[in-house]
Amino acid sequence: MSKQMLFSPGPVMTRQNVRESLMHYDICHRSKEFEAMYAGLCKKINRIFNADDTYRSVVISGSGTSANETVISSVLNDGDKVLLLRNGEFGDRLKQLYDQYKIEYVDCSFEWGTMMDVDDVEAALRANPEVKMISMVFHETSSSMINPVPAVGALADKYGKWFHVDCVSAAAGQHIDVADNHITFATSVGGKCVGAYPGSAYVCAKIDVLETLTPEMGRNVYLNLARHYQKAKSNEQTPNTPNVTLFWALDTALDNILSEGLDAQIARYQECAKILRDGMRELGLKMLLPDEQMANTVTSVFLPAGMDLEAFLSDMEAHGYTVYAGKGVFYDQNMFQVANMGEIYPEDCHKFLGVLKECIA
């Protein structure tokens, strides 16, 4: 089989030692060895969020959506209300979760690919003082946009609200400081910027808030944050059988980040993004967003008029490169996305641009 270069926003290219970690010898998840690994793993997750000792992380066996569902289904009592901020596919995913669990929310929505207006957010808070939690996406992957989390976090602090941030495609790719940004619950997954695999998600949360949760509050059994926290707190365990193999991979990927240095990894992502964006502009391609609004790891770009998007994607794949089609309204606009998450380096980006030029020609 030929190796595909994944220039897509998850799953991502993984380092050799991460792949090799999947061959770790079998252990029982109720063993002291697992507990020692789990304790260290959760502390490493805290570090990528720049979390202090007022935060605790737990690992959820599932995709990034499972981490968000764990929070949303676990932390609200009947009658509690949420202020939902959304401007893309993954903000809409949060809406789907709130709808599924019949949790009341104030819908503060913006057009896809449009920056959130913080004044509108504050107006919604003033008009709805009963809101208990604000919920939003850090990196709206469907457009590549970085949303104004620090500004919204300041509002959460000002008005005394909990703050849930979907960091699924941002953790280890963007600078995130949960304490400075007043984030109560941050969620992510291994198979994005961390450079591990889908299936190892995690929640980093304020301990004083976790202490207020009970298993009975949860609307879900498996994705129950109180149960995860209590088992982790009591003996560094998970409440149900976890996907142990992927825990090892996540642990190894986090070791790689901390060895390279989180700042160094983010700088590499920024360098790769600049190479890709400069190169695509030289090919005459137009970006959806200005550089200052884009993430370090995903670029949304339009094909030239008249080109068939599906044929282009197939051609790129035949040349060994995978990119994403735009979602929703962006697909109809002939947009595709190029990601530089995981084990992608500047030389890979230059090679990518050569193939892209050939496929567009």
Description:
Helix content is 41%, strand content 19%. It is α/β, with parallel strands linked by helices. The protein has two domains: 5-11 and 261-360, Aspartate Aminotransferase, domain 1 (Alpha-Beta Complex); 18-259, Aspartate Aminotransferase, domain 2 (3-Layer(aba) Sandwich), CATH 3.40.640. A hairpin with a 4-residue loop joins strand 6 (139-140) and strand 7. Helix 3 (64-74) crosses helix 4 (89-100), helix 9 (244-260) crosses helix 10 and helix 10 (262-282) packs parallel to helix 13 (346-360). The protein starts with a strand and ends with a helix.
Task: Describe the structure using short key phrases.
19% strand; 7-stranded mixed beta sheet; alpha/beta; single chain; 361 residues; Aspartate Aminotransferase, domain 1; Aspartate Aminotransferase, domain 2; 15 strands
Number of helices: 13
Known CATH architecture of the largest domain: 3-Layer(aba) Sandwich
Q: At the fourth CATH level, what is the homologous superfamily of the largest domain?
A: Type I PLP-dependent aspartate aminotransferase-like (Major domain)
Mean pLDDT: 97
Task: Describe this structure in a few short sentences.
By secondary structure, the chain is α/β, with parallel strands linked by helices.
Question: What is the topology?
Answer:
Blueprint (H helix, E strand, L loop, with lengths): L4 E2 L9 H6 L10 H17 L6 E8 L1 H11 L6 E6 L2 H12 L3 E6 L8 H10 L3 E7 L1 E2 L4 E2 L2 H11 L2 E5 L18 E5 L9 E8 H4 L14 H11 L8 H17 L1 H21 L3 E2 L10 E5 L6 H10 L2 E2 L1 E2 L3 H4 L2 E5 L6 H15 L1
Parallel strand pairs: 1-13, 3-4, 3-5, 5-8, 8-9
Antiparallel strand pairs: 2-10, 6-7, 9-10, 11-12, 12-15, 14-15
Helix pairs in contact: 2-9, 3-4, 5-6, 9-10, 10-13
